[in-house]
Description:
Helix content is 2%, strand content 43%. It is mainly beta. A hairpin with a 2-residue loop joins strand 13 and strand 14 (181-190). The model has no long low-confidence stretch (mean pLDDT 95).
Amino acid sequence: GAFEASDQIGLYVTDYVNETTPMPLQISGNRANNTQVTFDGAVWTPEQTIYWGNAKSDVYAYYPYFEAITDVNKLYFEVATDQTIGGYEASDFLWAKAEGIRQADGTVNLEMKHLMSKLTVKIVAGEDYIGSLPEDATVHLHSTVTNVNIDLENGSVVKDPYSGAKSINMRNLGIRTFDGEKAVVYEAIVVPQMLENSVPLLEINSKSVS
């Protein structure tokens, strides 16, 4: 999905010590430190002007914006357990890095990557199924860790080993058509992780039947 008006990203800019050696990303002392940048539907505007240095810079961006970050190598993030309304978008952590940029290069191109995983569930009619698909069903994804530590310097993610598994209420996209076949589609943003064996994973509830 594309960014919408009033979306906000965080921006860091670091300088190079010389032509080949970039400064590491730090909590402060960078050329730009977690500058809030707001989208109006057409243009991104930073809350304060960021000036170029004489040499090259690396530019880091992430979404959604955090006002207070205490560790750029260990940002604590949590995907929503209720992803039915708003929680899905808020869970979709995006990250980008542009390396070795000079003022003469013009506009900085930041290609956002999804750092979380996505699970899609499609409910389709079996051969002998008669009737309509259950559009009002709720689908829960069980036994997943929802907390994660994110390294803003390299975009790596590690699930939080100290938080227990939780259940996620997946968002309902309604009926979609795939290769001419109708399906009710559900989605959830999930922290990348190895899932345990022999634990409940998906639960579908429709008309009080689980």
